């Protein structure tokens, strides 16, 4: 039997779902757990809001973590393609606990001020080069996990973002070659403690961005070839059902290719690395008066063709 919290979650999922649940030809890779599994498995989400096909049951030789799956490259992807083309049992969504599509990556790279309309909201110039900061990978939680308000902050804010997941190792990657290094895309929530980001610790952004549970991801890693144009997707955030952010990824100042080329000048990118590509306008800190998350709030972050993550604040 579902808990009251899980019932509310699945009710919210049905409300935001834009099309009926049906098998999908898009490759939507997930990490999941059920009460009958001793450890997490890899799966295929059968469409936005749909159930899950267990890839490890389909082929027991497949790794059971997304990191290992991505490291194997085409070997694992070919198995997933075969599963996608096969009629397989689908586990109902109500029986599955979704984990973040990637856990414990080598790095989580974040990009600030990367939406033209977000820059306009703050009355600042569009950056001439990407503004890079980071989160620790320990901040990552699943697409429906709770966000914990830290007692150290009173100004916790929301930020919906498109996340890029790296599939192939590279350094000094040319922009023209960058998409070959992308495994796919997912939805991210860059939860931000504005007091720590903007006023504390020398105004460095790291601590304000990396409290535990400050990086919900999911629900699926949608592979690169399943997204027609990642830079033309509707993106929005709702708090307690009210739309607070609404834009399109075409507002990104630096696109995926540019970000990969820029970041890989400084660090080697590894399979599983996550790049959060920035947020559109509508965050709480720039509202008049400012609005911040509080206990009991529910945040929905949604990106067209990728899905929605729903996180309750506790």
UniProtKB/TrEMBL annotation:
UniProt keyword Transit peptide, yes or no: yes
Localisation: Mitochondrion
Domain of life: Eukaryota
Gene3D superfamilies listed in its UniProt record: Fumarylacetoacetase-like, C-terminal domain (3.90.850.10)
GO molecular function, one term: oxaloacetate tautomerase activity
Any one of the GO BP annotations: oxaloacetate metabolic process
The Fumarylacetoacetase-like C-terminal domain, residue ranges: 107-314
Catalytic activity: oxaloacetate = enol-oxaloacetate
Keyword entries, A-Z: Acetylation, Isomerase, Magnesium, Metal-binding, Mitochondrion, Transit peptide
Pfam families xref list: FAA_hydrolase
GO cellular component terms, A-Z: mitochondrion
UniProt keyword Iron-sulfur present: no
Signal peptide: none
Enzyme Commission number(s) from the entry: 5.3.2.2
InterPro entries tied to this protein: FAH (IPR051121), Fumarylacetoacetase-like_C (IPR011234), Fumarylacetoacetase_C_sf (IPR036663)
Cofactor(s) essential for the protein: Mn(2+); Mg(2+)
Function: Tautomerase that converts enol-oxaloacetate, a strong inhibitor of succinate dehydrogenase, to the physiological keto form of oxaloacetate. It is thereby required to maximize aerobic respiration efficiency by preventing succinate dehydrogenase inhibition.
PANTHER family from the UniProt entry: FUMARYLACETOACETATE HYDROLASE DOMAIN-CONTAINING PROTEIN 2A, FUMARYLACETOACETATE HYDROLASE DOMAIN-CONTAINING PROTEIN 2A-RELATED
Protein family according to the UniProt entry: Belongs to the FAH family.
Protein name per UniProt: Oxaloacetate tautomerase FAHD2A, mitochondrial
Gene giving rise to this polypeptide: Fahd2a
